[in-house]
Amino acid sequence: xxxxxxxxxxxxxxxxxxxxxxxxxxxxxxxxxxxxxxxxxxxxxxxxxxxxxxxxxxxxxxxxxxxxxxxxxxxxxxxxxxxxxxxxxxxxxxxxxxxxxxxxxxxxxxxxxxxxxxxxxxxxxxxxxxxxxxxxxxxxxxxxxxxxxxxxxxxxxxxxxxxxxxxxxxxxxxxxxxxxxxxxxxxxxxxxxxxxxxx
Length: 199
Hints:
199 residues, globular, single chain, 1492_t:CDS:1, alpha+beta
């Protein structure tokens, strides 16, 4: 099985719902891209496979996160996640963010549990992108006018207020098992939450 660790706006937050609304609207108007295959999230690790002692390693990851969040709860508090801007570049659109240093430390600690666990930068939420696997989608996102329209729509629809108010309680760390990896842009990957931690 494949696993991944995400930092997510809480599903009940206006911020999460507004990103999901943005995904729905852009899917209708511009067609699918790879961001549509996922829920709104910021990757803390890449996808990883545990090849041996799977249950023991799953338990170790959960216990490590439990302990770390408890011992760093004063550092991981309001304002520990800051949104910077919506950034548009060729073939991608993302919300730039900055997280507190303890979250980077947490991911480094988790990566020591298994060599397949690859830490990520924890610095953005993807709104639109396409990899080399989807050439037709890449061509669409390389259209400057289309990307400008998608950027304008993001600025109009996405609600930043509650996050910029320093409401750290509107974020979760979620440890997922990836049950199905979709090969189609218009079909979401299927995840099962192993554990969710409210920050």
